[in-house]
Design goal:
156 residues; 60% helix; single chain; mainly alpha
Length: 156
C-alpha cells in the first residue's frame, strides 16, 4: 500500500483514540471504548502497539502524537502526525506491510476527502457523478446532440 494512503488511514483510525492511547489509564480506556466502540478501540490498540515503538524513537513523531492526544480533532496536529507516520512507514517497509494487513483484516472502509473552490463539483466513490456550474451530468445511454447553451425557450 502507498505510504501516504496508509498514513492517512492510520491517522484517521488512531487520532480519535490518541488521548487514550498516549495517556493510558483504565478510566481513559473505558471512555475510549464507549466513544470508539470496542472493535474500533481494539484495532487502534493493535495498530498503536506496533507503531508506538517507532513513534517513541522519533522525537518529532512523539511530539506530534502528544499534540494529537491533547487535540484529536485539530487538523494541523493530525497533519503533523500524518507526516511523521509517513516517514516511519517509508523507513520501515515491513512495519508498513504489517499495519496494512491489520487494517485490511479489520475491514476498514475507504474514505475520501475533497475540497471544492469556486463553482466546481466533487464526486467520489464508485458510481459517483458530479457536474459543476453550467455542467450536465447524465447517466445511462445518451443519443443525439446536447445543447451547449440553454435555449431561450428553456428559461421561459
Amino acid at each position: 500500500m502507498d505510504p501516504k494512503l496508509l498514513a492517512d488511514a492510520l491517522t484517521t483510525c488512531l487520532a480519535p483514540a490518541m488521548p487514550y492511547l498516549v495517556t493510558g489509564g483504565q478510566e481513559m480506556v473505558a471512555k475510549a471504548g464507549k466513544k470508539l466502540g470496542e472493535d474500533g478501540l481494539e484495532l487502534a490498540k493493535k495498530l498503536w502497539g506496533r507503531l508506538h515503538p517507532k513513534v517513541e524513537a522519533a522525537p518529532m513523531a512523539k511530539a506530534a502524537a502528544a499534540e494529537v492526544a491533547v487535540a484529536p480533532d485539530d487538523p494541523e496536529s493530525r497533519d503533523t502526525l500524518n507526516a511523521q507516520i509517513r516517514k516511519i512507514l517509508k523507513a520501515d517497509e515491513s512495519l508498513a506491510s504489517e499495519l496494512a494487513r491489520l487494517l485490511e483484516a479489520a475491514g476498514t472502509k475507504t474514505t475520501y476527502q475533497a475540497a471544492v473552490y469556486g463553482s466546481g463539483a466533487v464526486a467520489q466513490g464508485q458510481g459517483a457523478t458530479a457536474a459543476g456550474a453550467g455542467g450536465i451530468a447524465i447517466g445511462g445511454s445518451v443519443h443525439g446532440d446536447l445543447p451547449l447553451k440553454p435555449r431561450s425557450s428553456d428559461h421561459e
